[in-house]
Amino acid sequence: MLFGIIQGATFEDLRKQSAQAIVDLDFDGYAVGGVSVGEPEEEMVRAVESTEPFLPRDKPRYAMGLGTPPQLLEMIARGMDMFDCVLPTRLARNGTAFTSTGTLNLKNAEFALDKHPIEEGCECSTCREFTRGYIRHLIKAEEILGLRLITVHNLHFYLDLMRRARGAIENGSFEGFRKDFVSNYKTRDVDVTNSVGEAASFPPNKSGR
Ligand SMILES: [Zn+2]
Description:
209 residues
């Protein structure tokens, strides 16, 4: 499928102009580009919000380069369907795992003797076989398997989050699902950085920038 990419930075009039010109060309789907490139999160959200009304409802919408787990749910709530993001793999290479209550840095000493999986109840192959303590040992020993195991978990986590979001949309419970997830998820600014290394959090947190 060929997608048209809408630009316009954080200027509402340019977003509108770009969206109308691109939609006139009748693509298979539409991407919102030029977001999550280092701008404050509230500007990113506004850029998506000012583009969305001009996108056809029967074509897929792709928010490029997003994001943290709460950001994905907030973007779905604003009409986005598709995403791509380096966070699950990049943070895994930094020893950081995603869970439904926020990220864990498995390099921390607190996990040295931890016999639990990264996330209790997770069905990924890492969580079924390996403990936090063992993964921490692998990272400390500079054994690449440690980063690979976290990568497998993080990708599973992201895909599972999207599966749960689709299920919630289908049974009409997405609003409750989004609110519960976002309120339970604690963003640790030290761990979760976007593509240019700036702290990212949701809801927008001015004090963190
Ligand atoms: Zn897992």
